[in-house]
Specification:
With about 425 residues, this protein is α/β, with parallel strands linked by helices. It folds into four domains: about 5-60, OB fold (Dihydrolipoamide Acetyltransferase, E2P) (Beta Barrel); about 90-230, NADH-ubiquinone oxidoreductase 51kDa subunit (Rossmann fold); about 240-310, Ubiquitin-like (UB roll) (Roll); about 320-435, Rossmann fold. The chain has helices spanning about 80-85, 100, 125-145, 160-170, 190-195, 220-230, 265-270, 330-340, 375-385, 395-400, 415-425; strands at about 5, 15-20, 25, 30-35, 40-45, 50-55, 55-60, 110-115, 150-155, 175-180, 215-220, 240-250, 250-260, 280-285, 290-295, 305-310, 320-325, 345-350, 355, 365, 390, 410-415. The strands form six sheets. A five-stranded mixed sheet has the order 13-12-16-14-15. A four-stranded antiparallel sheet has the order 1-7-6-3, with no helix packed on it. A four-stranded parallel sheet has the order 10-9-8-11, sandwiched between helices. Strand 19 (about 355) and strand 20 (about 365) form a beta hairpin. Helix 3 (about 125-145) packs parallel to helix 4 (about 160-170) and helix 3 (about 125-145) crosses helix 6. This is Proline reductase-associated electron transfer protein PrdC. It comes from Loigolactobacillus backii. One of its GO terms (molecular function) is metal ion binding. Keywords: 4Fe-4S, Electron transport, Iron, Iron-sulfur, Metal-binding, Repeat, Transport.
Amino acid sequence: MQQITLLLKQNVGGPAKPTIKVGEVVKRGQLIGIPEGLGAYLHASVSGKVSDITDSAIVIDADNEQPKDFVPIEATDSNVEAIKLAGIVGAGGAGFPTYAKLAKPITNGHLLINAAECEPILGHNISRIQTDAEKIIRGIEYVKEIVDAADVQIAIKRKHTNAVALLEEAIRGHDDISLEILRNRYPEGEERAIIRDSNINKLLKTDELPYAANAIVINLETVFRVAQAIEDRQPVITKDITIAGRLQGDNEIVSVHKDVPVGTPVGTLLDQYPEMADYGELIMGGPFTGKHTERDQPITKTTGGIIATIPFPQLNGEKVGLLACACSATPERMKEIAGKMGADVVGVQWCKNAVVNPKTGTAKCINPGICPGQAEKVLNLRKMGAETLLIGNCTDCTNTVMGIAPKLNLPVFHTTDFARRATGERIMRHMLPENDQ
């Protein structure tokens, strides 16, 4: 019997308050939690019996046989209300309740759909385009009508040629929808970069939201879930996931699993790969911004990927300097990786473009993906005693690091190396011709 763990808080805002009790039998799609204030409705992703309710989660012992149908959300004439009742949140990782995001009209403004697959390796958004392009376009039209936008741009990287062709076909006859073709760089797909490179052509300040450009940016899977809620009255009970790593011996595999029940343990997904090679760690999310996870952790409404990295190289106490990027792993996450490498961290520097929030310790980039040069920061780390660098920079910043680090005889590791090597992707160092494609 499989256990499903549904976290009460999978979103920005407060947690859902359980509406069921231990011992109750629930059906797939049944409402089991309601938020107080800003938050998201929570639904059973499987049929079964509630075996535990904690301060943070509802645990369901799933029935061995699962139905394909579900308990529909309440009928409503309001599309915004349907989105709220379905418990839709930003599927790209932020988890902001979608009904609240769409509550403010952007009359004559711009709706931007993020289909970029900003992080390398991840491929579930592109896979969803390949199977459900028409429904995605209908979801976009619903959202456009709700927020009263004048036009829509779908941001997607040029390298996804098949998905681009499918979208071009799907938007025929939709004169208000066009494609925004992005380069194959990181962080192409960050919302301020999308706005900057769109026909809006405006670089927002680090403390400005898209509303400052009379725009809304919304993830592609999110608009697909919007269409499901409005057309099928389906709540959010599943998530599209990319699973990647050396999943069959030394074979490097990237596999998309669509409609995984929310609350499924990571280990249950990995059990489908019994010949999986030894790994360094499991990452939930993408290689840049993902976090360490364990096999017993549940999939949430915002989970995008599960990546098994290669085993970490051991530096045996070598002195390492960390160069953090606003678009990537935090210094705390980088220290965690350095610890797994057996390194002695002697200094930390932020990228020159990073604007750090002193309250949260997080940062935003002044101009995402466009680097002013990192020579000063590399020299600072060298003065701190660094013998090796561990960096988390974007494509352009990494290129500038490689302009000086070799001259100082400083070996360079990137925080994404271990995930990329596990999936056969080229590690990121110098700018390549493919990055301009």
